[in-house]
Design a protein that fits this description.
The structure is a homodimer. The first copy, chain A, is about 40% helix and about 25% strand. Chain A is built from 8 helices and 10 strands. In chain A, α6 packs antiparallel against α7. Bound molecules: calcium ion (CA) (2 copies).
Chain lengths: ~220, ~220
């Protein structure tokens, strides 16, 4: 299936650009991207790559979701700037499709409702912003690091590696080997992140490695 | 001076809660917090600790800023949900006060305007959300790690330490010592973050250390 991205505001171009750059680097499968804006005004505010298909329609109208072929989609991403609409649309999408649904929510109180509606992941953009604004007061260095790790610009990126050759290897040994390749091992991921384990712990079979790597630093966004 | 937080929506309670918890843990100086909402409706949506002073007023009206004693403030945080208002208010605050100004912006295009107006830091909440939504498709593990590192919940937090005793010590040695104390050394900060330096590099004088520590995991937010 394809990717459907529904919403308004600057979450949309940022999401599309991240997805297309992951497609062009081969990190994610090449599949069509369909973006749904609520009106022409929103569409005009945003410049999108020409391979992206654009539709206009009310996201809470089932007919809009049908036009975007949500039924066949693999992923549906909602950034509607309206949490009650997001809950409603999540319910509709989940009823008509097996797509994974990822939702941007504005209010922390919406988290449980969205999960209940079937959202596979909820990003609380504004809570995070509030937290980073406060941290800017008392630990600006942490905000700089998070800013760098979470954007394509700056000196560093965080990523995951699948390295079967390191399964069963003691953590400290894996750390050294990856350091030689320019990666900084943060931990491993098996169902959930385990950072900084005991140094002689063996990297578990089936896990992925979480690393920091030098960033592309191209300022592509 | 005091802290002035001006805006609407869920960035506000998240910012206040982060700041009050940093005050109560002694990470930041105890000073009054003043929150300015644009109207009674916004004020009612939010529950704030009772030691926070609340004002109602248009943030683009200089009289509102005077009532909040912005002139004497040390920090002014803006989360207005409107980037043109934020540019305007930043200019006004900077003209009447020496406060540091931290701003949540919704659109990437506002970044340069806000910096030009004198903002000391700009958080692009929705660009970050868009990026995390896209990353949820192809590297959900990374989103989990970032989610954990940027919220008080989960198993880990990122923080900075001032450890004069480690200045001049080779990086790998500092790493080992901190590991023994339960910290995971990510790098050091001197003007900008330097993560994962060469292992025999000495921690520079005057730098702070960036570490991951086990989280409070209290789910306090
Ligand atoms: Ca980066
Ligand atoms: Ca955490």
């Amino acid at each position: 299936g394809h990717y459907v991205i529904i919403g308004r505001g600057s979450s949309i171009p940022s999401c599309v650009s991240e997805l297309t750059s992951a497609i062009s680097s081969g990190e994610v499968e090449l599949k069509p991207i369909v973006v749904v804006f609520p009106d022409e005004g929103e569409r005009k505010k945003v410049e999108l790559p020409e391979e992206v298909e654009v539709l206009i329609g009310d996201p809470t109208n089932p007919e809009t979701l049908e036009r975007a072929h949500v039924k066949e989609a693999s992923y549906v991403i909602l950034a509607l700037e309206d949490d009650s609409k997001s809950v409603f649309t999540t319910l509709m999408v989940k009823r008509m499709s097996n797509a994974k649904v990822f939702v941007e929510a504005l209010r922390g109180e919406s988290l449980e409702l969205l999960k209940g509606a079937g959202a596979d992941r909820v990003i609380l953009s504004r809570s995070l912003a509030g937290r980073l604004l406060a941290s800017s007061v008392f630990e600006p260095e942490v905000v700089d690091v998070i800013d760098d790790l979470t954007t394509a610009s700056g000196g560093y990126d965080i990523t995951v590696l699948e390295r079967r050759d390191l399964w069963g290897v003691p953590y400290v040994e894996a750390m050294k080997r990856l350091h030689g390749e320019g990666y900084f091992l943060l931990g491993y991921y098996k169902e959930k992140p385990v950072l900084n384990p005991v140094l002689n712990e063996e990297i578990p079979e089936g896990s992925k490695l979480i690393v920091i790597k030098p960033g592309s630093s191209s300022g592509k966004r």
